Amino acid sequence: MKSTEKYNRIRPLKIYEILKKETDEDHPMGTEELRAKLLEFGIDSHRTTIYADIELLNECGYEIMWRRGRSNLYYVEDRSFDAPELHILMDAVQAASFITEKKSAELIKKIADLAGSQKGIVLQNNIVKFNNQKNTNESIYYNVDTIINAINVGKKIIFYYFDYDVNHSKVYRREHHHYVVNPIATVFADGHYYLVTFDSRYGKISNYRIDRMEKVEIEWTKDVELPPEEMHFDVANYKKQLFGMFNGETTAVTIDIDKTLVDAVFDLFGEQTKMVTSGENTVRFTVNVQVSDLFFGWCSSFGDKVKLLAPQETVEEYKNYIRKLI
User: Fold this and answer.
1) Domain that holds residue 57
2) CA atoms of 166 and 169, how far apart (whole Å)
3) CA dist 165 to 67, 115, 171, 220, 250, Å?
4) What is the CATH number of the domain that holds 216?
5) Which of 108-112, 229-233, 302-306, 309-313 is predicted least confidently?
6) How far is Cα 213 from Cα 78, in angstroms, rounded to an integer?
7) Mind listing the pLDDT tens digit for each residue in 135-148?
8) Same domain for 96 and 162?
9) Other C-beta atoms within 10 Å of 213: how many?
10) What is the CB-side half-sphere exposure of residue 220 using CA atoms within 13 A?
């Protein structure tokens, strides 16, 4: 079979590939330009063959739009994402501190490519640079890949965990002894990426920052142990109860707040948080939280506009927290 004849057989698919990548409703491609693009791939074409190929593609569900004229203009209108959606995704990548500068640039380019070349250029030119500190640990992506694989196959993982000292050197916890944990889920919170695990020895949930994990491997010989059904563990509810991903004992707390803080409460606990009037300028609500110093810090950040009412044990802990600050 001659080379030209072989290439002409895939001409319809190559037409769709070109139009999907390089056109949209604002940037259609004329017949002659499309013919020139095909010729770059060694594919010969004519106005009538292009018209016939595009009719065939539309019959097969590929949906190529065109505007009739002396020279027809063709474009692919349907995209998986529209421009505002892609802009939101790109902003999210920029704002996430756990994504390194290098990887941020790579991801933004890939997201922009989803819009086609024309819209992608516009999106990249309009990206706002967030003034946040980016992580430098490139291994986080390999860590995430291993963790997700372990969760999917139901196996434990093993890794080393570290912090940084004032000299920017790694200090390994447990004197450089490894951790073996039951991975449950990954959670993005406060600009960082966390692994949520179940500690079967003590029957509790623990969190680890994925960018502080090293030499993450799947323990193929050890099946994962999941939280018992009576714990009613749910990732979405678990995240709502946390403050800065610091674990604590889950407690139903009752709080009085000034009415001016309603939006702040909805932002943190969700707009479905039920409230009742408790005074002329105050409302009361009860939520489940994991009691920690960060929770007390949130309460005290609003001064006398927040009053922790119950349970009494938590109230006493809060009082002790404030005494320590004083």
Assistant:
1) 3-75
2) 7
3) 64, 43, 7, 33, 31
4) 2.30.30
5) 229-233
6) 41
7) 666 778 888 889 99
8) no
9) 23
10) 0
